Amino acid sequence: MQRKIVRFVEEENLFYRDEKILVAVSGGVDSVVLLDLLCKMEVECGVAHCNFHLRDEESDGDFEFVKNLAKEKGLAFYSIDFDTKKYAAENKISIEMAARDLRYNWFEQVREASEYKYIAVGHHADDVAETVLINLARGTGIHGLSGIKPKLGKIVRPLLPFPRKQLLEYAKKNSIDFREDRTNAETDYVRNKIRHQIMPVLEEINPAIRATMTENVQRFREVEQIYNKVIEQNRLHLVFTRENQLLISIPKLKELLAPVSHLYELLSPYGFHHRDVRKIAESIHGISGKLFSSASHQLLRDREYLILTEISEGNNNEYLIADEEVKLKLPVELKISFLDRTPGFQFPNSTKIACFDANKLQFPLQLRKWKEGDYFHPIGMKGKKKISDFFIDQKFSLQEKENTWLLLSGTKIVWVVGHRMDDRFKITGNTTKIYRLELE
Predict the structure, then answer these.
(1) 74 marked as binding residue
(2) Residue-wise pLDDT tens digits, 309-353
(3) Is 293 among the annotated ligand-binding positions?
(4) Is 89 within 8 Å of 83 (Cβ atoms)?
(5) DSSP per-residue string spanning 76-103
(6) DSSP SS3 for 241
(7) Is 59 annotated among the ligand-binding residues?
(8) Domain Lysidine-tRNA(Ile) synthetase C-terminal, which positions (predicted)?
(9) Domains of the chain (ranges plus CATH)?
(10) Dihedral sign, CA of 101, 107, 109, 111?
(11) Is 344 annotated for ligand binding?
(12) 261 annotated to bind ligand
């Protein structure tokens, strides 16, 4: 095992032996064997332990065990206590996810503060097989099939070539004590169900299923590398930026093999899920004007492009309106239409209706809240006026200010929605096409 771990560290370029490594030690066989092997490699290690307080006295026993282990080896020891159940409840996530978030955030804090190069964790070959099965059960793409990466950012996993059985044999042969977590035998958690209920059935079909899964994952990782390279090559011709927007060419997207996969890789970093991406992909074969939103971004299906815009926090949310939009429900409800200018056209006598010279507008239009320094040219007045001064003149309350939206064409304000239009976009004798909005 010592020769194999040295070879694996070198092949995967996990770290150099003269670099300081923070080792996450729970007290279980995997992390204790990992620490022992790294010490035998003469790597300078520190020990980090989390007490999640999920097993009462046993959790405290794990803490004492790891603390004494670090002391015996003369290593720096770092520990922390977490109220994991409270954190999970407050963030509405599972206990497993809560523990994961808490420990990795804290590991990184210790790593930076104490100048460790990497954080070593004890994931092994069984974990890889179980992770792939979990991902398959929940739904995944090529990234989920490639399992647990040997190195991801500052996290390294030197034990990935070894099944748990081999770690137990190593511990027995070298008289290494470790703590057994009784919850590992329970089936309350998804991973334990896979380990105790699914893997035994798969072993009946293929006794070497763990080795087979490891080989599969290695092949999937190579396929993933090819996949990522193709995506990045196509991104260069598919995507460009304009001011604070990301534009994806619809004609070029239609030419690609697997446009859904390309879209997913482009949009998933912005909070769009597979089901969202499929709907977006379907929209490129329909008419323009559809809007899609994630928690942080809005995507507009315009004529030639998919236009991605960040939604700012608080009152600075921004929404786009395509030139073929006929109905808008958020953030305000608007009925929209294009009209031909006729001799009998009557200007509406209502602040809830706005009519503009359509040829003067630059689409997509934008709806947003006001910002300090905003100004417009109120219709019927000469010169410009700050929006803040307009609010004062109209005796707006604080709540009315916060609830007022602005319609913009490019960087110019077209309409203080529901209150006053801008003189620069008004209908004149030369107007042939009218853009009409009605606030419902």
Answers:
(1) no
(2) 887 654 456 788 887 767 777 678 888 999 998 887 888 888 899
(3) no
(4) no
(5) EEEEEE--HHHHHHHHT--HHHHHHHHH
(6) strand
(7) no
(8) 365-439
(9) 2-222 (3.40.50.620), 243-310 (no CATH), 325-439 (3.50.40.10)
(10) negative
(11) no
(12) no
